[in-house]
Amino acid sequence: MQVKEIELHDDLSSLVSLINNAMWDDANEISVFDVESLTAYLSRQDTVFLACYIDEQIAGIASARIEIKPYGKEQWLYIDEVDVCVNFRKLGVGKYMMKSLLTIAKAHNCTEAWLGTETDNKAANALYSSLKPTEIEEFIGFNFDLEN
Question: Which residues neighbour 80 within 8 Å (Cβ) at sequence distance 6 or greater?
C-alpha cells in the first residue's frame, strides 16, 4: 500500500482515469473527475489531495485544506473527503490515508485537524474513533443549495 500526495506535475490524466474507473458505491458520493477540475483544485496553495494505491490500482482518495484562523495565525487541517474503493475496504486504506493526512498537517505546523461525518456512517465513525481523537463532537450541519 502506498499513499501519494498528488501535485500538479503528476500525470493527472492517468489518475483521473483510474479514479473514474475504480469501484465506488453510494457511500462514497464520488462525482466524475476531470483533469481541468483537479488541476484547478491542486492549483490552490491550501489544498491536499492523496491517492492510495494497492498494486497500481486506486484503493482510495482523500482531500483536505490547510486553513488559517482569523486570529492567532494558527493553521489547522480541514479534512473534506476520505473515500475507500469498495474492493479495498477493511484493509486499512482509510486509516493509512488518515495517518498520512495527520502527518502532512504536522509538517505544515497545523495545531489541529478537523473533520465531520454522518452519525449513521458506522465505518467512518469506527475509523476516526480508532485514531484516538482528542474530542468527538455532535453537531448539526446545514447545506444551502445556491444553484436555485
Answer: 63, 64, 65, 115
Beta strand 47-54 pairing with 110-114: unpaired
Nearest to 33 by CA among 43, 44, 23, 21: 21
* H-only helix segments in the chain: 12-20, 35-43, 93-107, 122-130
- Which tens digits make up the pLDDT trace of 8-38? 999 999 999 999 999 999 888 889 999 999 9
Domains in the chain: boundaries: 2-130
pTM assigned to the model: 0.91
CATH architecture of 2-130: 3-Layer(aba) Sandwich (3.40)
Helix (H, G, I), strand (E, B) or coil at 52: strand
| Per-residue pLDDT reduced to its tens digit, 72-84 | 889 999 999 999 9
